[in-house]
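Below is the record:
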Amino acid sequence: MTSVMHEDGPRGAAGMKRNGSASMRRLFAEGAKGPIGLLAALVVLIVVFSFLNPRFASIENLQNVLFQVSVPLILVVGATLVIQMGSIDLSIEGIMGAAGMTWILLSPNTRTMIDLGLWAWLIALVLGMSLGLMTGVIYAKLKVPSFVVSLGTWYVGLGIAILLYGNNSLPSLTSEALARWPTGLTLGLPHAFWLAALVLLFGLLISNYTNLGRGLMAIGNNEPIARMSGMPVNVYKIGAFAIAGLLGGLAGILATMQLGSGSTDIGFGQLFVVIPAAVIGGTALGGGEGGMIRSALGVVLLIILNNGLVLAGVDPDYQSGVFGLILLFAIIAVAWPERGRLKVAK
């Protein structure tokens, strides 16, 4: 009896304290590993490309990089929420096209005489959220794989964009204020980047400080246990896709403003930046792991890589191939240490 009391006393407490401290150190190390590795990779890229072309490190190019980062940064917030629960969203390009065309046709443009002001934003955003909501409902309620559902939503959005585009002339913005807003500077940074930074903050708050964010991570870790604990799994799944759709709509509006005209394929190529960026950032395709900051750093890394290849004078005919090879090696480098824990995306 005495020995038991002894173990539960100061020595036992000290052991628990040591174990707790070790757990905290491991938690910090795991949380810091991703960002530190990504930051190191960013520093290497910046040094290499600055050596190859001194213009890379100029203020003008930094502003250009941040301008290019803005759209995929908005998209990766929604994509990260979806991937964290072990699902995938392929619909972003279609949603961007539908929302972008809706917005420009309801804003000052060369085709219509309509100018609904803020209502144009609201209608386009609601359209994007509705498409995401549709994806979430079919996925959660009808148990159709997210890959299949979101692929279908992509083409639904693309179809809406094509119908709105029609056979008439290209709709272009006639408002100079709207056309110039994304490239305008505040504190030396483009407005488009400030908008993306606010969205990233919104994603951080959801992911780290709400039941939805914690619930999505729990679903990705072990969905059956999440259900048995009484968690509203279907509600969280639908909510994640609705948010992703909303942000896809916002990205479509911003991309349309940047282009200055409507386009059905305004989101072309974004999917192949956003998903790899999240994976490079450490968001596991099987769910249950990842974070907004890490995904954002993944976006910045890929945009800097693309920008650097252009300024380094790589032949345009080879840029896609070189970019793809580097991206492939980057994903392997990130995934290989965790290959034993990787799961197939649901």
Notes: The chain has one domain: 71-312+322-334.
